[in-house]
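User: For my dataset I need records formatted as: sequence, then structure tokens, nothing else. Please produce one.
Assistant:
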Amino acid sequence: MISFIIDGNKTVDHPEKSVDVKAGELVILSKGNILTSEMTSELNDFRSLIIYFSNEVLNRFWIKYEYLLSDSLSTSSTPYLIYKQDEFISSYINSILLLLQKTSTLTAEIKQIKLEELLLYLLQSDSTKLRSLRILSEDQNSLHLKAVVERFVEQPTTVDELAFLCNMSHSTFQRKFKHLYGSSPQKWLLNKRMKLSAELLRASDATPSQIYFKVGYENHSSFSEAFRKHFGLTPSQYRKQYMTVLK
């Protein structure tokens, strides 16, 4: 959660310490046992803008922008981070408020873009400080596993090869993968690749023989057989049926 304090104060209580967040500051709170309370200003007013997001959203941000991170990882961690609201952040708050004036509900795409905009700015301003949240969100091995899997999902990579890239034994990789994704890697990869191939068949003019290598298969026949078992139709039949429904 990110809370921008506009008027008044917010108190963050953690088992180890408490801290006051004042107007003109923002606080990023991690998931955990933290209590917060609000205090009004001299004008008996408390105003804040709050952005909620899950640890999974934060993890995907680290995966997406891993290339921006230095090799050294912060070894310290804190349940919250406090930043001063500079000119950029003040403009950022105003942009959110303007969007909310236009519509009471923002689309998922706009929410993601605006959150990434802020996190990228904070990362550029002080990467070491922001990266302490990375430790809180998930251990480094799990984050690395997700980065590898999502990078190679569209390539003909085997589970053993993914385990090797993650520097894990086959059994350790299987166990960690199931803990993170709630499924075996074989089943998850199949479902992911089938979903992607179906999207490509619906949204492009590419033939099945032009698609298979884009979804992690080494040849057309193995792709067609996997697709038929998954959907009950060959790729060509699936596209024909989809086009018929559209008509």
